[in-house]
From TrEMBL, chains A, B:
Record key words, sorted: Aminoacyl-tRNA synthetase, ATP-binding, Ligase, Nucleotide-binding, Protein biosynthesis, Signal
Entry keyword tRNA-binding: no
Protein name per UniProt: asparagine--tRNA ligase
Signal peptide start and end residues: 1-19
């Protein structure tokens, strides 16, 4: 059965290669010639048949998701070898091209594959190949199709020092080879899901009529939390060359690129507010920076935030939008990356699928902060010794153990806690009538804790000035922010979502450094 | 006719306000109460009718694009007043909510609009209002519909110092009030088109199976062009507090956040290559930085690049992809922002529509660099005095006047120039067989010049090492980049597109500082 099929394939393969060459004239051939590449023909044939249609490259995912009609079709697969199993004159090569978690099995043998022995001698884990062949029903389990190769071109061999030879590596080790780790199942899957979430983010906001605003990263006016900001400068790094002020004792920032000290922003919110107060509904999606000296698995020095801002909206509009957003992007990502989610659900966290089902199908809980405090007090009273921070009362900034109990144990689903004490929240959040709370909300999710922080913004000029004074902020530093309250002020509200936390949540990734291509953290700035 | 309509409206309006109040219980009322806002009812009515359906907010664009069936429907419009024309007991208020360039005309009068005089006394340019009323066919020209207001709520008055009182302001003046300028026609339109282009960018690459990779902005290994990079640091800015090395003469960067000098990246390409060599086709879309001391209208210190990178691809694949990309996003933006494009085409540049038609409908030109040189030499020979740089020969780095002649005068469409002399191009570009050129391409477009720069990357380890030596680069700084050539190297190619230049091109914007929300340039870091 197999050998007969191979015979057919051989003939077809020859025709294909010839056809391929015949059709590679014009611009394409020109390109090759100009680019200096020799024509890549894996073998010469003495059998001349009528030219068949040359196979264009088929992505592995396309092949694996095809219906039965693809069986017996000629295909050209290009990708990287994950594994090779040799059986004397027969080899099974798993090839992955990054389009899906699953690779496709290429079957090569002495009888049907040109230059079998010579080619296989050059192919090991990590090599890049281009395999021409015919689709067959797979004899192995787990896959519908495989490719019986008539010819294999070795595009790029792989040096023996390739660090991904073994099948399993610790995520910690993989971080040391971040330039290669996307070639592994886990990191490749996270990268694809992250991309799907990001692309779905833009689709969601486009559908909802939001304008995407790319707010600046370099800022001179971002005073809040300046202690944890990175300074941006073009002043020379040599002490002797640094410009000094008249006293000779301090740096002269008037000589710096922007004529004054500049920093990397910690949030695009204030800038986004200016655009919301012109265009209505806007969002940012870009990097933000925190110079925190924190080596936890939950913090990065450079991370990404999605910050929607909606004019003529209140805190409940924000909760509505945030809930729709999270449900939409998770649904989309699952639809677009089914193989990756199957992997996470079977090999990383068996409870993930059920957790995501709850997320997309059930309404999120909404609970006022005061109620959350009551729930916690009642629970803690049962056995205070179980808690690291048993003292909980109005004014307490909820600790991670409190947040996680609410979302993981009590409600067992995402929870918006809202109307926090004004003392523990930012100056720009809108005072509620009770004089004690502000219109702020955090979305807590199982396994992560806080995923989203949002609020209605203080749109009343005098109240905002008062709150700025209370926070020790100078009006002159925020003149433009205050202008929004002078010229047609409107109720408006928004939220910020930490994108890497969303990626961790959705992919059951424990360390945030694995949720981003090249993580930045104290002492960590490689690649 | 009008007064009869107004009578009907009055009744309907009363019912609506009452219904509105009746339906505002539950979560929504809760939100208002918690957020401390008084119920906003513009007038009390003594006419009690059966509650009608409360009008939800209608966006201006939705209204203007509705079919005739909307006439006589109740609507609630929220937005900012652009202009008010008063005629004794009748006022025409143009309200814009940012959803489109066009505002909608709200008609208020003493007879039909509650508290007419009192309300109108508080409404001027810049004020925020919420108008409840009925849709009518517009009596004026240019618009199909207007809203006859039964009640108008003044959401936020506008201080007399509002700088956008006049109808026309110079773009230069608007840059000084960048926090308000999106409320003007021109900047609002650019912002919407920019957003549409950005969202379409993600849609395009999602459709083509590309993975979005957010490459890091803070980098320690980006050695190319280090002279024009911003330094990123958390070292103290006080001279006395700066940590010093053993000699006491230089800064000790081991004490800095990353333990060594760090910078803001000038390109995500090298990082994107690592992901392309794992996932196949990837792209970045994020900010990049250039600390050039340049005050031109074509440069920004912080701008955005789209950098696709494709494995198993050559220079012609890149041209194909770039051409599809530009056509797709321009087509999408025109479809989604017809009003904005009508504005650019009528008030900014009358030739823009024809130029964009050529762009989306005709194939781009492709011409080798050597041919471009021949064309230029022949043209310059006719009258060298017309040229600032008449000396053109193989090896010349084309000046702006050369590029613009090619795309604007000779081909009159976008042109890919390809296969540039290797001496004037970067180390990572693939050497062609001729020994003189590299597989690089620039896309030149009318009115802008270079929009895209792309190349096939040097995937051969030894050639790459040679080119790095020629460029004075150290192998140890690029060990991870070289690894890609050691472990299953593949032909790959990519390009970089300056997003703000694309925005300028598509919107006929002359100064790049108007193509971004808050521009950063030497001495410019406001807001």
């Amino acid at each position: 059965m197999r050998s007969q099929a191979l015979g057919c394939r051989l003939m077809l393969g020859c025709q294909l290669v010839l056809a391929c060459r015949a059709l590679s004239g014009g611009a394409r051939l020109g390109a090759r010639r100009l680019a200096g590449a020799a024509p890549r023909v894996a073998f010469m044939s003495t059998t001349v048949g009528a030219p068949a249609a040359a196979p264009r490259r088929t992505m592995v995912r396309t092949l694996l998701e095809s219906d039965e009609a693809i069986v017996s079709s000629p295909v050209l697969i290009k990708g990287w070898v994950r594994t090779v199993r040799d059986q004397k004159t027969l080899s099974f090569i798993n090839v992955n091209d990054g389009s899906s978690l699953e690779g496709v099995q290429i079957v090569a043998d002495a009888e049907g594959t040109a230059d079998y022995a010579a080619v296989m001698a050059r192919i090991g884990t990590g090599a890049a190949i281009a395999a021409t062949g015919t689709v067959a029903r797979s004899q192995g389990k787990g896959q519908l199709y495989e490719v019986q190769a008539s010819s294999i071109e070795v595009v790029g061999e792989c040096d023996d020092s390739f660090p991904l030879q073994k099948k399993r590596h610790s995520l910690e080790f993989l971080r040391s080879i971040a330039h290669l780790r996307a070639r592994t199942n886990t990191i490749g899957a996270i990268a694809r899901v992250r991309s799907a979430l990001a692309q779905a983010t833009h689709a969601f906001f486009a559908n909802e009529g939001f304008t995407y605003v790319q707010t600046p990263l370099i800022t001179a006016s971002d005073c809040e939390g300046a202690g944890e900001m990175f300074r941006v400068s073009t002043l020379p790094a040599q002490l002797s060359a640094m410009p000094r002020d008249e006293s000779g004792k301090e740096l002269d920032f008037s000589k710096d690129f922007f004529g004054k000290p500049a920093f990397l922003t910690v949030s695009g919110q204030l800038a986004a507010e200016t655009y919301a107060c012109a265009l209505g509904s806007v969002y940012t999606f870009g990097p933000t920076f925190r110079a925190e000296n924190s080596q936890t698995n939950r913090h990065l020095a450079e991370f990404h935030m999605i910050e929607p801002e909606i004019a003529f909206a209140d805190l409940f509009d924000v909760m509505d939008n945030a809930e729709r957003y999270v449900k939409y992007v998770v649904r989309e990502a699952r639809e677009r990356c089914p193989g990756d989610f199957a992997f996470f659900g079977s090999l990383v966290d068996k409870e993930l699928p059920a957790r995501l089902d709850v997320l997309v199908n059930e309404p999120f809980e909404r609970v006022p902060y005061t109620t959350a405090i009551e729930l916690l007090r009642a629970e803690i009273a049962k056995d205070p010794s179980k808690w690291e921070f048993p003292q909980v009362e109005f004014g307490t900034d909820l600790a991670s153990e409190h947040e996680r109990w609410l979302t993981e144990s009590h409600f067992r689903k995402p929870v918006f806690v809202y109307n926090y004490p004004r003392e523990i929240k930012s100056f720009y959040m809108r005072d509620n009538e009770d004089g004690k709370t502000v219109a702020a909300t955090d979305l807590l999710v199982p396994g992560i804790g806080e995923l989203i922080g949002g609020s209605q913004r203080e749109e009343r000029l005098e109240q905002l000035k008062l709150k700025m004074r209370e926070s020790g902020l100078k009006e002159e530093d925020y003149w433009w922010y205050l202008d929004l309250r002078r010229f047609g002020t409107v109720p408006h509200a928004g939220y910020g979502l930490g994108f890497e936390r969303l990626v961790c949540y959705v992919t059951a990734t424990a360390n945030i450094r694995d949720a981003i291509a090249f993580p930045r953290f104290p002492g960590g700035c490689e690649f």
